[in-house]
Amino acid sequence: MYLFLSESPRTLYLVTSSQDERRGCPSRALVFRAASDSFSQAVVEFLPKQEVDLTNAIKLTSRIVKGCLGLISIANEMFLAVITSATEVGNTRPSSATPESVSQIHDVGFYCLTSSSWDDLSSLTADPLASPGYNDQADVYMREHTGSGTATPAPEHPCAPLRKIISAGTFYYAVEPQWDISSRLQRRLARKEPWDAATFDDRFVWNEYIVRSLLDFRDRLDPQERVELDQCQFVVLATQGYVGVSTLALPAPPTNGTPIIATISLISRLGWKRAGTRFNTRGVDDDGNCANFVETETIFSTDQHCYSYVQVRGSVPLFWEQQGLQTFGQRIQITRPQASQPAFDRHFAALVEEYGAVHAINLLGTKENEAALTWAYTRHISIARNSVGDTIGITNFDFHAAVKFGGHESVFREVRHLESVVDNIDRFGFAMADANSSEIITEQKGIFRTNCLDCLDRTNFVQDILSRTALEQFLMHIRREWIHSTSLWSTHAELWAENGDALSRIYAGTGALNTSFTRSGKRTLAGVLSDATKSVSRAYINNFQDKGKQVAIDMFVGNLSTQRQVTIFDPIHDSVRAALANRLHEYSTTKQCSIFVGTWNLNGKPPTSESLLPWLFPRPNIPDPDIFALGFQEIVPLTAQQIVQADPEKRRMWEAKIVDTLERRPNKKSEYILLRSHQLVGTALLVLVKKELTAVIRNVEAASHKTGLRGMSGNKGAVGIRLEYHDTTFCFITAHLAAGHSNIVERNADYRTIVTGLHFLKGKTIDSHQNVIWLADTNYRIDLDNERVRTLAQIDDFDALLAADQLRRAMDDHEAFHGYQEGPLLFRPTYKYDLHSDTYDSGEKMRIPAWTDRILFKGNNLDLTVYSRAELKSSDHRPVFALFRAEVRIVDHAKRAALQKLLLENVTTTAPGEKLDEKLASLAFTSHEQDLPPPSTDEHAWWDDQDHPNGIVIPVARGNGANGRSTNPFDSSSESSLSSSPSSSEEELYNALQAPITPNQPPAPTHRRPAPPPPTRANKPTTEMADT
């Protein structure tokens, strides 16, 4: 197929070639253009080729286009992504009735639908074999245009980082339209329904985000058009990982001297739901998706049998990360040690549902960092058995210790003889199918889940052993003599070595270690030197290059919070989406939660015997808060040594003190756990929650930003923790701004630097959240002379002090904290006191008292109930606290899906012989239909009434009944003034969908069908939630 461009309006045409048509492909064109004044909505048409006028169109590339990956919106422009170079790897299962070939992507092009600024017509003369990878120096989007003896670099294409990732040789797609590369053999053969291009394993289709709109467009086509679209292969689903195919001759039985041709294939499918690079993406997320999750399938195919064996690898499924500069002694932090179990359970429950039994093989060592992960992993497995059952187990095997004692050869021997491995190899079995009929003969009933720290070198080594052991079992059943085939095992080893290199390049930037032994079975000097070089390269790449690559990955899979997914113009679905956003209250509920927020400058002091109860529980008659957010400044003395390398021990001491206070408090009603803590030199933030809330608090992240010495020093700066409580987002920020009475401008600048510079994962900023609370030592002072301030404070004349408060002036002048609120200051200035005294600073400097410690907030659903200070005297600051009530929204995704389906069915249901296009052209909606129910309230909802008990809604099509109503609920009566309306505008369609719609009722009571199962929860909040 070829890609053409025409202007006025700007349109891209993906057109089948004569070569495609000779192979039986329909003569068709897929036409793209941007909707008017939109960079995130496209108009797409699937037309016969003869109906497309290409007279004035130009061919955008001389290359044959292999297919379309999707549409993406970047930098306020919309781009069409197409594959421009790919090579066929081979047929992974030659014994299949239809070929199952795979192609490897080498280059892609991103062509703009909204602007000509990025047209690159010179690519017509470019090297057709050029295929820049992520680390290639040459990038055709970054050309130098010479003129007058000078070189001026062209601006970088907005999609250049994406192009580098996709063109790195790690993406693959199915050549034939009739097979699904994303699903393992056993899953494909077990499907009973006819093949459908929209049926795939969404864990492994990397372009799902950018191709989703085209798949939705495909679903709306007529059945015959859908078949033709699939035959044209305009839309391609791509996986990332590795595919290797090798064919070899094996000895035939004595009765026949002709060798048997066997094919061995290795397919690794990398999951995208927690995608990222080595130091940027670790552990698990709240949905149970873990980093570097890979499903690897070994396929062995002959003319009689086809064998499949599946294993998975993945990061230890706990909340852990590595921050800062990482060298060879990697620092590991388990960030939510007491709140990992719900996500851990989700991860293993998903594995059990998908694969059956799961046995984890943990290859971490006994060094301090890895030992902590091993201990936590084992403990979580034992707890998970209560919810998941005995279908999961774990074996801890110290890979490095085994190599140190007996070399890599000992690992091969020991793993094969581990009791848990031997037992589970037999118990899990393998999948085998008849080569001619593709009927499943045996099924694999469980998997091994292998991990080390990165799930690369050690993991690949052990998975190679497990794959060989399982294949030997299969050969024992069908042809015992093949077990001794040297060519078979050398081919198997080579494929696994290449697999290790490919997966390592994706995650860590270099090839895998230990592959020299994997290939040859020997540890050589050249292999040792190669591994040393790779280790140094990894350290550099992971520390200094991966952040940019991480952003590109997040952009590709739709993780950036600022992204807008491209949709295809469809007035029905667009209006339904808008209607759903405006009817949020009908499929969601709210509940109240209470939040305690406190800030305290500790002056570098450790915990003392002084009780924290007056601060943490200041009002005895108030129910226990759901969340504690506690910010500390100067948790360590701000010395040069601490600034260079902060000591976390003081933070741990204060964490222990707070947890102990909560545990030992009188009349304890609730259990609390430390959800997350984070430290930047002297600034630290702790978030604790009630234990029962850990299952509904998700996506907890921490970030920090330095402001000292122009951003180079952490003696001043901010720490943030964000979280989602059900479907409502919160962000807590503690900060220590510039000191000095007169340094107002510096403090204002620190605030702006923090707001613009503090970023969470996936592009989220402070202002991305619905509720934001600052709890900080702002260091703003009072602009009055010392004696005057002390006198006014002594007589509690707070109004006079507030009139001279620097922070209030900065807020009024919009210099800092614009849009934030603060409670009334009805307590004395909190700084600076003599230690263990109620006397303001009597030392040599005699600092002017000030309200340096403040709590500010913004959010429509935050209600401040208490704002005060506590009389703790172990620091020169008094701690400040605030109590909030907040409204938390809980979205019922099953109800939302039911309402969406109901709206769509009412709009698209047609009478016999009526065409939807004609109906839409003649529709005239009115919001005064008498049979429509009133809007839902807290007392009554459209989905729960006497005709629809428990919310079961069954739309039933029927003809005109005794009541004389039309089959079409949207038809106007002949007397209606609207009946002669020739058409309805998009605005009318939109307005009509804002009114509740009731389904048609059955003519007579009948037995009800059960309600459809609720849909699976979306991976991330829908866009309509963003503004709630």
From TrEMBL:
Residues 162-509 form the SAC domain. It is found in: Cytoplasm. One of its GO terms (biological process) is phosphatidylinositol dephosphorylation. Residues 972-984, 1017-1028 have a biased composition (Low complexity). Its EC number is 3.1.3.36. It is an enzyme of class 3 (hydrolase). GO terms for molecular function: phosphatidylinositol-3,5-bisphosphate 5-phosphatase activity; phosphatidylinositol-4,5-bisphosphate 5-phosphatase activity. Residues 999-1016 have a biased composition (Pro residues). Coiled coil: none annotated. Keywords: Cytoplasm, Hydrolase, Protein transport, Transport. Residues 937-948 have a biased composition (Basic and acidic residues). InterPro entries: Endo/exonu/phosph_ase_sf (IPR036691), IP5 (IPR046985), IPPc (IPR000300), SAC_dom (IPR002013). Residues 928-1028 are annotated as: Disordered. GO terms for cellular component: cytoplasm; membrane. Belongs to the synaptojanin family. In the central section; belongs to the inositol 1,4,5-trisphosphate 5-phosphatase family. PANTHER family: INOSITOL 5-PHOSPHATASE, PHOSPHOINOSITIDE 5-PHOSPHATASE. This is phosphoinositide 5-phosphatase.
